Amino acid sequence: TATGSWATSCSELGTCATEPLIAMGVLSAAAYACRRLAIRSTWGNYPEVLGGEVLLRFITSIAPAPSEALMAEQSKHADIVMLQTNVTSRNIGPMLTVFRWLQHAATTPPYSRASFVAKLDDDGFVWVPEMARHLRLMRAKPYVYYGIFYWTVWQYGKYRTGGSSYTSQQVTSG
């Protein structure tokens, strides 16, 4: 289960103008407070985020308990979802954290009310207005996958990773 004493609905946060369009989970290790601050002060400041249409949450794996620094940051910003995975190592921890985020987002309001659920790493940048515009157009369509598909296989030939499913020609030709 998720851990922490943060608000769990848009109305509790006082920022929800509409039902959420997307629940965007940004994977961020507990020690990366500087990355979370950079996002909050840049693309986390768009009106779609501030108004609750884009639910921006930092997803952090904790095992077995969160640090005092992480709890203090959560108390100040109320935008961190701490998920118990019991694994924080880099070899499997991120994959388990993504899995737990998808489980959490699918079953926990307000995330479960969002039309879309996303995962992003904390070193990415999102042009929120454009992404929201695209997603609004696709909101009524079933089975939407939005983004680049990259495959990886864990322990296939001992940690072999894959590649993208598109070619540069496909990208430029639309």
Structure summary:
With 174 residues, the chain is of the alpha/beta class.
Structure write-up:
The chain has seven helices and seven strands. It has a five-stranded mixed β-sheet. A two-stranded antiparallel sheet has the order 6-7. It starts with a strand and ends with a helix. It has 174 residues and is of the alpha/beta class. The longest helix has 15 residues, at 93-107. Helices cover 34% and strands 20% of the residues. The protein has helices spanning 10-13, 33-41, 47-50, 68-77, 93-107, 128-138, 168-173, and strands at 2-3, 22-27, 54-62, 80-84, 116-121, 150-152, 161-164.
Along the chain, the helix and strand elements come as EHEHHEHEHEHEEH
Poorly predicted sequence stretches spanning 5 or more consecutive residues = 1-12, 170-174
Largest sheet features: 5 strands, mixed
Strand content: 15-25%
Shape field: globular
Number of strands: 7
Classify the helix fraction into a percent range. Answer: 25-40%
Cα(first) to Cα(last) distance is 41 Å
Strand order of the largest sheet: 1-4-3-2-5
Structural class: alpha/beta
Number of helices: 7
- CA radius of gyration is 17 Å
Q: Determine the mean pLDDT.
A: 82
